[in-house]
Design goal:
The structure holds 2 protein chains of 2 kinds.
Chain A: H1 2-29, H2 43-52, H3 59-71, H4 86-121, H5 126-135, H6 137-140, H7 143-157, H8 171-201, H9 204-211, H10 216-244, H11 248-254, H12 260-268, H13 272-300
Chain B: H1 2-17, E1 36-40, H2 56-65, E2 70-72, E3 78-80, E4 83-88, E5 94-99, H3 113-124, H4 134-137, H5 144-148, E6 159-163, E7 166-170, H6 178-181, H7 192-198, E8 214-220, E9 224-229, E10 243-247, H8 252-260, H9 275-281, E11 286-299, H10 309-317, H11 321-329, E12 334-335, H12 353-356, H13 359-372, E13 382-388, H14 391-408, E14 411-417, H15 419-427, E15 433-439, H16 446-449, H17 466-475, H18 482-495, E16 499-510, E17 515-516, E18 532-533
Parallel strand pairs in B: 1-10, 13-14, 13-15
Antiparallel strand pairs in B: 2-3, 4-5, 5-7, 6-7, 8-9, 9-10, 11-15, 11-16, 12-16, 17-18
Helix pairs in contact in B: 10-13, 17-18
The chains are: A mainly alpha, B alpha+beta.
Chain lengths: ~300, ~525
């Protein structure tokens, strides 16, 4: 197992390097610059700004400056939020999204797996249809509809929850972002769980367990659930990264100050270092959680050994 | 010369007599116990460093944190700030400001002429790399251009502290509107010790020192910015609001929800789509005021047939501006027939002839002109109309394209581009006709008209008329430039139709009925220190 983990870490380095290189040059090839705006700056003024950010040098030099900084853990200055560095902005916004994300993940996992299992055990019954109907609400109600709808119901019609803000993560500020964030994941998890559970329940070892007269709850919790979870787990790795790195809709509607909006705004503002920062963050997390999923696989499935 | 001196003396005295900026609570108003306000702040500002701020969200907050030599009142008139008075020499090239001795930074240090020297100098210093360095260049402060181009040392800038409380500015040529420009954040004082101690971190909540009515308590990017009273502010006794929170919300729809849920007292803007409904449901909370800016369509004059004035006139005449302003935007905008908006200070743009015609007459002229230029039904004009991706621009483009189609048989393809791409496309003249808009930086007609001079960096259509350039250049040193401005308008619009003005901007906000003292001027410079919360 240790060899496997160290191998994964070593593999991650070239992967990240390719990701960084491709993103860097793609970003710099987009038309415009961080400093192009409606008002054209006088050439001398623009020259001073470009010199300050090394933008007057060839892109390849800029790339090596960036890599140099990165090796020292410096993600560079933000071109959009000029009073902050990318390290500061990520340090401020990532914990917010991570907190919303972890709660959303737990909610999605509990409800999603619960719905999937119930639906699978009562396959094609009204319970199956209604449970899956509920779970699938998340797909028909995307979060850009759900977020304003939540505010309308919980903050405008009934003044139960604050319509936005973060306030250091006080729970009333957390409820609506978690609802908006978790619904689409509930649907996905429930669908995968249901499919996989149905398949497992029809497999030979479950039939054997039944034939041996094991009580139903033991069959489900001890024998069926573990193998049925394998496809769910492979989905959860990347899903977890997606959920903890936030959503632009949640950030914009609830004004949480999370990291989600930096993805879109970074690109729109040509905030090169911001785009690079969040790409590296997501890249690293994705590699990390895929590795964790692989380890979990080995723990759950006795057939898999590294 | 005697007359100029006399005029200066009268001006100085009248400014001395003008009321100072502060909340003016009418007698009998019962104030609320809690004087805290939550304001919509638009998007998160790029910086709070006054010399580097370039967007409205930044200026909005800087007006609460800092104060310059003068401020602007609700009508756009000068009101003393850190300066109590000024004198100008006979040819208006040397301005001497007397500063009040009780102005202090939030750490208790006095605000001195040296802070202004430092502020002005760092704005042009190439090391600061300020995108607003050109603002010091516009009034031609001695050596500003040379310093920006790294041809002179920043210390040679034409600003001087004669003593701690006397600040002097030398201009290379007389600029009548110079004092008004001092209300802009680029010309605010800067706290040298703090900036040198903290470097680019000086604007962080823990480090920042400010000389305005408020000081910063908290800044959480994309969540909120909280300011509280600066007890050291010279006019703190007249300030009523104790705490102001700015919520950075980019989406007008998201902002509306926060306002409706009672989390905000004064919005930054309001979504156009909800305007009619809001006007019906909460008319007293929808406040519309004119804004110093024009929405227009730009023609690419480097390309045929847009270099033909007949084509440009035909396209411009065929736009029914009343329909656009009243029905398509429908949020209180005024149709625009001249480039300078009507509310601009000191200049009343003369009504061009085509503004006095009926739309039917305009359409007939348009048809005749386009036919004369060689475009008929069998040989129709076809082009692309470029705009940046936005629902409102799209609606206007669809409406105008259909007016052109109906009146002139012109085939228009709409082309939307993401903001930065759109800017690049325009800058490289890779368009036929493009949507454009301009908001003035200072309340004087040249803030708009300069845009159409042949060397202006934003003259994307590349309009060029030597007579126009001459008139505007001459206007810069004139005491009363209105004559030149009118001639310039006549040449650029009436004669050459360099651009097609469409409507004059407005500022639209939602204001809770208990917010008093909200009086935006045409530049939309509003100050929280003028406001108060009425008991409700």
């Amino acid at each position: 197992m240790l060899t496997f983990i160290s191998k994964r870490i070593l593999e991650a380095i070239p992967t990240l390097l390719v990701l960084i290189t491709v993103s860097f040059f793609l970003m710099h090839s987009a038309p415009g610059s961080p400093f192009s705006g409606e008002r054209t700056l006088p050439p001398e003024v623009l020259a001073n700004i470009n010199a300050k950010y090394h933008l007057d040098e060839p892109v390849i030099n800029q790339f090596f400056y960036y890599l140099g900084g990165l090796l020292q853990g410096d993600l560079g200055p933000s071109f959009r939020y000029k009073d902050f560095t990318i390290n500061e902005l990520i340090a401020q916004s990532f914990p917010v999204s991570a907190e919303i994300g972890i709660w959303s993940f737990l909610v999605a996992l509990t409800i999603g797996v619960g719905c999937g299992v119930i639906a699978a055990l009562r396959q094609n019954s009204w319970i199956d249809y209604s449970v899956m109907g509920f779970a699938n609400l998340g797909i028909v109600l995307p979060n850009f509809v759900l977020a304003p709808l939540c505010i309308l119901v919980f903050s405008i019609y009934n003044q139960l929850l604050p319509p936005g803000g973060w306030n250091g993560g006080a729970w009333p500020y957390l409820v609506m972002p978690v609802i908006a964030m978790s619904t689409s994941y509930i649907a996905q998890i429930a669908r995968i769980t249901r499919g996989s559970m149905i398949e497992t329940m029809h497999s030979n070892f479950i039939r054997t367990a039944r034939a041996k007269g094991l009580p139903k709850h033991r069959i489900i919790f001890q024998h069926a659930l573990r193998p049925a979870m394998l496809p769910v787990i492979s989905y959860l790795g990347p899903a977890f990264v997606g959920i903890i790195t936030g959503s632009v809709i949640v950030d914009v509607y609830f004004g949480t100050g999370g990291i989600g909006q930096h993805f879109i705004n970074g690109a729109l503002n040509r905030d090169y270092s911001m785009v690079m920062g969040v790409t590296i963050l997501v890249g690293t997390l994705t590699i990390l959680f895929n590795a964790i999923v692989d380890v979990l696989y080995a723990l759950i499935d006795p057939k898999i050994r590294y | 010369m005697k007359r100029t001196l006399l005029a200066t003396a009268i001006l100085t005295t009248s400014l001395l007599a003008a009321h100072s900026h502060a909340a003016d609570v009418p007698a009998g108003t019962q104030l609320a116990d809690v004087q805290d306000i939550v304001r919509g702040g638009g998007s998160e500002p790029a910086t709070l460093d006054p010399q580097k701020i370039e967007g409205t969200p930044g200026s909005l907050r800087a007006r609460d944190l800092f104060e310059g030599l003068y401020n602007l009142d609700g009508d756009g008139n000068l009101v003393p700030g850190v300066a109590t008075s000024y004198t100008a020499n006979a040819d208006n090239t040397l301005y001497t400001f007397t500063l009040r001795q009780d102005a202090k930074w939030s750490n208790g240090d006095p605000v001195t002429a040296h802070d202004f020297v430092y502020g002005f100098t760092r704005a042009v210093d190439p090391a600061t790399a300020s995108p607003y360095a050109w603002f010091i260049e516009i009034p031609s402060i001695v050596n500003a251009s040379k310093i920006i181009a790294s041809d002179a040392d920043p210390s040679t800038l034409g600003v001087k502290a004669l003593d701690d409380f006397t600040f002097q500015v030398s201009l290379e040529r007389p600029v009548p509107y110079f004092v008004k420009m001092t209300a802009h954040q680029t010309m605010f004082p800067a706290p040298k010790n703090t900036i040198e101690k903290w470097g680019s971190d000086w604007t962080k909540a823990d480090n920042i020192v400010s000389n305005g009515a408020y000081k910063m308590d908290e800044w959480i990017v994309n969540e909120k910015m909280v300011f509280s009273r600066n007890a050291n502010y010279w006019n703190n006794d007249k300030t009523v609001i104790n705490q102001v929170t700015f919520l950075p919300i980019e989406s007008p729809n998201a902002e509306l929800k926060r306002f409706q849920a009672g989390q905000m007292d004064l919005s930054y803007e309001l979504p156009n789509d909800h305007f009619k409904q809001l006007k019906r449901e909460i008319p007293e909370q929808v406040v519309i005021t004119p804004h110093l800016g024009t929405y227009y369509y730009q023609f690419n004059l480097t390309k045929a047939p847009y270099n033909d004035v007949r084509v440009r006139k035909a396209l411009s005449y065929a736009i029914d501006r009343n329909v656009i302003a009243n029905f398509v935007t429908g949020t209180g905008e005024l149709p625009a027939y001249s480039f300078t908006p009507e509310i601009v200070n000191g200049f009343d743009p003369a009504t061009p002839d085509y503004a006095t015609w009926t739309q039917k007459e305009r359409n007939e002229k348009a048809q005749a002109l386009l036919e004369e230029a060689g475009f008929t039904k069998s040989n129709p004009l076809s082009f692309k109309l470029l705009y940046n991706t936005n629902e409102n621009h799209k609606k206007i483009a669809i409406a105008i394209a259909s007016m052109w189609k109906k009146t002139l048989g012109v085939n228009v393809t709409l082309e939307n581009q993401e903001w930065k791409t759109y800017i690049e496309t325009k800058k490289h003249q890779q368009f036929d006709v493009a949507r454009a808009g301009w908001i003035g930086d200072y309340n004087e007609a040249s803030t708009m008209l300069d845009l159409l001079t042949s060397t202006h960096g934003n003259n994307d259509g590349k309009y060029s008329n030597p007579e126009y350039d001459r008139l505007l250049n001459e206007a810069k040193t004139m005491q009363n430039p209105a004559v030149n401005y009118n001639q310039a308008e006549e040449i650029a619009i009436e004669q050459d139709m360099a651009v097609a003005p469409i409507y004059q901007y407005t500022t639209k906000r939602l204001v809770k009925p208990y917010v008093g003292g909200y009086f935006p001027n045409p530049e939309d410079s509003i100050y929280t220190r003028d406001m108060y919360i009425i008991k409700h």
